[in-house]
């Protein structure tokens, strides 16, 4: 069938290189993987792949935040978490090696903001911790532990003491942890 | 007057309209509060950033983006980026030629830098292997391998410097001399001990005899030798200090003042690169255990505060006793090492026995370093400290043990009676240590770790296998090994110039050995290992090792006077430069003598003091400013909440009265 490399027009490829943090090889690989998901090759670039299909990717399959990731990067009007190829590139760009701390922390905040209201409140934090520890009843923290943990987090990160962690407070915490850039990473 | 009345009416109408539309919902104060919070400029900005490209107007949002920020660094989707770019292109047409040229230059420069960076990072070996290890074992284990790779690159760099400044001049000089054709056979023992043929080979100091080109007095091989060695040491100091400082700035300088331990663990806890579902559930287990342990630790601190006096006294006695025990253990370990060194200096009869004796000190050191850390970790369990302190205490004791045993070894070497060519003898000892380190790793991988795994996998039900379990890959102790061997390289490089090359080969093999051990024989450790704080620790340990090697070098240079062997046979190391200086013209000579005088040093120190003081005071001022700004933030947010509350109560009252 020939390489999939030829399927992506050259000008589009260079545009993607300019607008994302991905290299040429990474974009081509992404295109290959995405067309495999789509089932048919060289489909129109705006056609969507449903969230269920995207989540079968091994890179996302075991990630507890996989649904949130799809929702954040999806540009669908229906808010069903389906991705176009460009959304997929956005996702890979934010999670790539060379993306900046700024952009990674921004997307991390949006992934952790489960109710999309622009701040991390106690309920978001609870969901976040549940994702981290596992959702089943025997893996969750006890109610008492959860309460103590959330109050500790707010005590530490909520600088303006309004009961929620907003984006700049979140970035403030993240910016002091160089670990973050290396762990907020998905490479195909 | 009219205008104001109209506006008030307008306002009322707006309000009533709003209340009409929301009459169904509750009339509580909170409702209005959230309503107003939503209208605040800050949350509006958030919402705009959150909105999708389809729904928001790109012209509106792109106004707030700085055009110098690359488009790819904007947190919006591709379509929005495209729109912004379109706008920027329009702008570019309207701005002047100079500006547009400058901007495009900026972009090309940035692109070039990225290309070069990408090409350089492509040169680094083992990227895929590291990626795989990261996926299976997480970031912590990867940090160890990255550190190993960093040391390998450092050693390769040394090799290049030494090949250029030390090896080549001597080889060129030698080739003009008469060539010795006698080629004695290489014995297996020579490879391990560095005797026989190796003694007169480029590996050791005595090979690098004095020689110079007739037309340049300055360009003699001792000077080049010194230059190469000094540049190696300076390079290492700069690299290690830079790394340490960067890490320190990241973690401790800020971390101490604003403790945000738990926030880190929650916000940065998930490692998105984990792919394996088993690894993912393992990671979840780690995080849960880690969080539980932290909460437990918090409760522990509360318990500590409630401890009674009697308990305190008992605990202090226990701790003093245990510390005494640790000291005794350390002392006996050092004594054991010392005696093994004394024993090794006696000459046995048989060749193989001799070899064993030669290797006795390294074997003793390795054994002690293998056993004692386990005892230390057991001891620290009884001391009733919190868990982190326990771990750190064990680590600090182990670091002390490792570096001090090396120190004792060096000390006894320095104090042994000098032989005909003391420089070579010293170099030989370091060579031996390096070779032994390699043998130890090999032995450890194939004769300790692998049989253990084999036993556990083959006979999972036997009691021995259950007791042993699979090995955990303990990052700190492995890093300690690396630091130790690197210290040996630094100490020995002056007297055994090819040591960096040997250790580069060793590190390369070590990478594969360790990879085998990790992938095949180890289970992931029960505790997560933080990369950031740990990399500070790694480099701090390196710094300790480096300072130790510099001290040893200084002592050694003083010890070996003229009359030994090697490049500094006829002069001392310090006199080598004076020959060169004498050939220079007078003004240059004067300048050099001024620079090396006390007056200049005094001025230099004074200048450094002034600069340091200004930096310290600036740091303090910044810290105060941070404090004040934080207070101001709290005030602002509480003011905001107060005003919103006031406003909503007033609104409600107005609605009720109507």
TrEMBL record, chain A:
The keyword Calcium applies. It comes from the Eukaryota. InterPro entries: CIBP (IPR051433), EF-hand-dom_pair (IPR011992), EF_Hand_1_Ca_BS (IPR018247), EF_hand_dom (IPR002048). SUPFAM superfamilies: EF-hand. The keyword Metal-binding applies. Keywords: Calcium, Magnesium, Metal-binding, Repeat. Transmembrane segments: none annotated. One of its GO terms (molecular function) is calcium ion binding. Gene3D superfamilies: EF-hand (1.10.238.10). Pfam families: EF-hand_7. Residues 100-135, 145-180 form the EF-hand domain. PANTHER family: CALCIUM AND INTEGRIN BINDING FAMILY MEMBER 1, CALCIUM AND INTEGRIN BINDING FAMILY MEMBER 2. This is EF-hand domain-containing protein. It comes from Phoxinus phoxinus.
Automatic annotation (TrEMBL), chain B:
It comes from the Eukaryota. Residues 50-59 have a biased composition (Basic and acidic residues). Residues 48-67 are annotated as: Disordered. The chain crosses the membrane at residues 147-167, 223-241, 316-339, 389-411, 431-450, 536-557, 592-616. Residues 421-532 form the TMC domain. Keywords: Membrane, Transmembrane, Transmembrane helix. InterPro entries: TMC, TMC_dom. GO terms for molecular function: mechanosensitive monoatomic ion channel activity. It is a multi-pass membrane protein. Pfam families: TMC (PF07810). It is found in: Membrane. One of its GO terms (cellular component) is plasma membrane. PANTHER family: TRANSMEMBRANE CHANNEL-LIKE PROTEIN, TRANSMEMBRANE CHANNEL-RELATED. Belongs to the TMC family. This is Transmembrane channel-like protein. It comes from Phoxinus phoxinus. The lineage of its organism: Eukaryota, Metazoa, Chordata, Craniata, Vertebrata.
């Amino acid at each position: 069938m020939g390489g999939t490399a030829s399927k992506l027009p050259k000008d589009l490829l260079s545009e993607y290189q300019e607008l994302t943090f991905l290299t040429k090889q990474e974009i081509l690989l992404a295109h290959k993987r995405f067309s495999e998901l789509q089932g048919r090759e060289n489909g129109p670039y705006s056609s969507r792949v449903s969230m269920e299909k995207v989540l079968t990717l091994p890179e996302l399959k075991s990630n507890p935040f996989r649904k949130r990731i799809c929702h954040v990067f999806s540009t669908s009007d229906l808010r069903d978490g389906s991705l176009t190829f460009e959304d997929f590139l956005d996702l890979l760009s934010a999670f790539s090696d060379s993306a900046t701390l700024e952009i990674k922390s921004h997307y991390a905040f949006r992934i952790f903001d489960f109710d999309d209201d622009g701040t991390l409140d106690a309920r978001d934090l609870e969901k976040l911790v549940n994702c981290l520890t596992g959702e089943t009843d025997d893996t969750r923290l006890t109610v008492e532990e959860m309460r103590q943990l959330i109050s500790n987090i707010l005590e530490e990160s909520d600088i303006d003491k309004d009961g929620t962690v907003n984006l700049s407070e979140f970035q403030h915490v993240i910016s002091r942890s160089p670990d973050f850039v290396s762990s907020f990473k998905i490479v195909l | 007057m009219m205008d104001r009345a109209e506006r008030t009416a307008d306002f009322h109408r707006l309000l009533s309209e709003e209340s009409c539309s929301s009459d169904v919902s509750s009339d509580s104060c909170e409702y209005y509060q959230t309503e107003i919070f939503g209208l605040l400029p800050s949350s509006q900005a958030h919402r705009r950033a959150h909105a999708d490209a389809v729904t928001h107007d790109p012209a509106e949002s792109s106004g707030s983006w700085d055009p110098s920020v690359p488009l790819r660094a904007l947190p919006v989707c591709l379509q929005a980026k495209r729109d912004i770019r379109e706008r920027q292109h329009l702008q570019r047409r309207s701005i002047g030629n100079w500006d547009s040229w400058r901007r495009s230059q900026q972009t090309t420069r940035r692109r070039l830098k990225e290309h070069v960076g990408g090409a350089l990072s492509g040169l680094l070996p083992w990227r895929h292997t590291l990626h795989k290890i990261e996926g299976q074992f997480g970031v912590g284990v990867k940090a160890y391998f990255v550190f190993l790779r960093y040391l390998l690159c450092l050693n390769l760099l040394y090799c290049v410097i030494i090949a250029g400044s030390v090896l080549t001049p001597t080889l060129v000089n030698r080739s003009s001399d008469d060539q010795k054709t006698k080629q004695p056979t290489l014995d297996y023992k020579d490879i391990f001990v560095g005797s026989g043929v190796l003694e007169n080979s480029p590996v050791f100091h005595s090979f690098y005899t004095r020689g110079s080109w007739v037309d340049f007095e300055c360009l003699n091989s001792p000077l080049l030798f010194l230059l190469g060695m000094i540049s190696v040491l300076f390079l290492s100091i700069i690299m290690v200090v830079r790394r340490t400082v960067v890490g320190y700035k990241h973690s401790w300088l800020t971390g101490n003042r604003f403790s945000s331990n738990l926030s880190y663990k929650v916000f940065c806890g998930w490692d998105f690169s984990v792919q394996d579902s088993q690894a993912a559930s393992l990671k979840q287990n780690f995080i849960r255990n880690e969080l539980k342990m932290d909460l437990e630790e918090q409760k522990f601190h509360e318990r500590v505060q409630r401890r009674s006096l009697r308990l305190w006294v008992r605990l202090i006695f226990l701790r003093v006793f245990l510390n005494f025990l640790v000291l005794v253990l350390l002392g006996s370990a050092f004594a054991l090492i010392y005696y093994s060194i004394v024993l090794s200096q006696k000459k046995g009869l048989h060749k193989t026995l001799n070899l064993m004796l030669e290797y006795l000190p390294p074997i003793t050191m390795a054994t002690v370093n293998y056993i004692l850390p386990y005892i230390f970790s057991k001891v620290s369990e009884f001391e009733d400290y919190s868990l982190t302190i326990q771990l750190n205490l064990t680590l600090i004791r182990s670091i002390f043990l490792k570096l001090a045993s090396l120190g004792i070894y060096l000390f006894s070497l320095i104090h042994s009676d000098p032989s005909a060519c003391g420089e070579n003898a010293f170099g030989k000892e370091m060579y031996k240590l390096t070779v032994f380190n390699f043998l130890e790793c090999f032995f450890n991988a194939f004769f300790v770790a692998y049989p253990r795994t084999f036993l556990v996998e083959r006979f999972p039900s036997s009691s021995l296998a259950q007791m042993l379990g699979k090995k955990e890959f303990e990052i700190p102790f492995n890093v300690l090994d690396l630091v130790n061997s690197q210290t040996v390289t630094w100490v020995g490089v002056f007297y055994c110039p090819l040591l960096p090359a040997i250790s580069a080969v060793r590190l390369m093999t070590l990478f594969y050995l360790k990879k085998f051990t990790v992938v095949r024989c180890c289970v992931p450790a029960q505790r997560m290992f933080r990369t950031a704080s740990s990399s500070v620790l790694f480099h701090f340990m390196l710094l300790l090792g480096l300072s130790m090697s510099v001290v040893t070098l200084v002592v050694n240079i003083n010890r070996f006077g003229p009359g030994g062997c090697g490049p500094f046979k006829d002069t001392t190391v310090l006199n080598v430069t004076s020959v060169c200086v004498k050939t220079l013209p007078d003004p240059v000579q004067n300048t050099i003598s001024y620079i090396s005088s006390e007056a200049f040093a005094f001025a230099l120190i004074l200048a450094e003091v002034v600069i340091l003081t200004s930096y310290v005071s600036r740091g303090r001022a910044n810290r105060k400013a941070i404090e004040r700004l934080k207070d101001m933030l709290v005030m602002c947010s509480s003011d905001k909440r107060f005003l919103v509350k006031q406003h909503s109560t007033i609104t409600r009252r107005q609605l009720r009265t109507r």
